Amino acid sequence: MSGARKVILPSRYIQGQGVISQLGAHVKQHGSKPFAVGGRTGFVKVKARIQASLLQAGVPLAGYDDTVTECTYAKINELVAKVEELEADILIGCGGGKAVDTAKAVSEKLQLPVISIPTQCATNADQMADAVIFSDDHKFLEDLYLSQAPVLVLVDTEVVARAPPRYLVQGMGDALACGFEKPAYAEAQRLKKAPVLATTAALEVNLRCFQTLMTHGIQAKKDVEAGKITDAVEAIVEAIKLQSGFGFGGDGCAAAHAVHNGLTIVPGLARKHGEIVAFGTLVHMILEKRSMGEIERVMRWCMAIGLPTRLEDLGKLDMSYLPKAAEKACDPKDSMSNMPFDVSPGMVLDAMYEVDRMAKAIR
Ligand SMILES: [Zn+2]
Question: Which residue of 152, 200, 230, 359 has the smallest Cβ count within 10 Å?
Fold first, then answer.
């Protein structure tokens, strides 16, 4: 028997200016006592609008916690107890990845529906059926896979496009990877005769996501910097928030994220997740022996929006750690094993230097 095609998706995705006002009507379909989870900076931006919409629909907040700084088991357990005590019946996660992941993990423990309201565009965590768990001292612990995706992802462009432009750039860097990682993952799964296979739908959406980034990314960054919410901005927000998550569909990282994970051990690394993943994507393309023209096109796009292409763009790296980073990227437990061919630490190290050399040459 061949493997099963699988994808986990949110039930609803709504994106546009002012859509937070629709929240109450949607909450009402799933519960009557909502509990909101957020971080301090994100939640305060939407709190008044959320409360107004919920009040209008007759489903006011049963409670909220706006102190999430990290998605940890300690915080998740604390919130599970709070939500149970208040007998809340639906979770609302507001903010960046950490707040939203915490809300999703709490909803999983209690088997309650969850709604995501992102306040910026640096991640696509809002719609994914997973939560990235950290230890109390901010170290990555595990990627917790959840049985369900949110029942609603409410992306108010009025909110996310007014966040600092660097978030949009980081989100584009992260989304860039899926056009390369998912096809590699799909091919590896097929070769391994794995029990779970990628869907054609996810692969197609990933390609579309990549095209959207290449077509509208540079303009969208300019528009957001100018405080304008244009068609290019809406297209890029959809690429990050819907397409890259849909294309990921629950699984599908490969070399780009493995290189990111490896680089996180290098002292001096000063970039955020999506930015490091963009560099990892270029390394991924070298590993796949993509044509120079194709790599140069993506590299020029990265340069135009401020994503790192040279090693020095990643920070004041302690270069003596690069071989260790390449080794970590090839950890058998990491997503490098989702490449359809064997990748050695030596290949990763060479590819990192090759990206750096190319970027210096075309600059
Ligand atoms: Zn990522």
Answer: 200
Q: What letter represents residue 48's amino acid? A: A
- The Å distance, Cα 282 to ligand 1 centre, comes to 14
pLDDT for position 196? 82
Asked if the model's pLDDT at residue 217 lies above 90, the reply is: yes
Ligand 1 centroid, distance to 82 Cα (angstroms): 30
Residue 190 C-alpha to ligand 1 middle, in angstroms? 23
> Catalytic residue numbers?
174, 257, 260, 273
Where do the domains of the chain lie, and which CATH numbers do they carry?
4-160 (3.40.50.1970), 165-362 (1.20.1090.10)
Distances (CA, A) of 82 to 7, 59, 79, 90: 32, 18, 5, 13
Residues 8-22 pLDDT 10s: 889 999 999 999 999
Q: d(Cα 94, Cα 154) in Å, to the nearest integer? A: 10
Average pLDDT, the chain: 94
pLDDT at 250: 64
H or E element, residue 362: helix 345-362
Rounded distance from Cα 143 to ligand 1 centre (Å) = 12
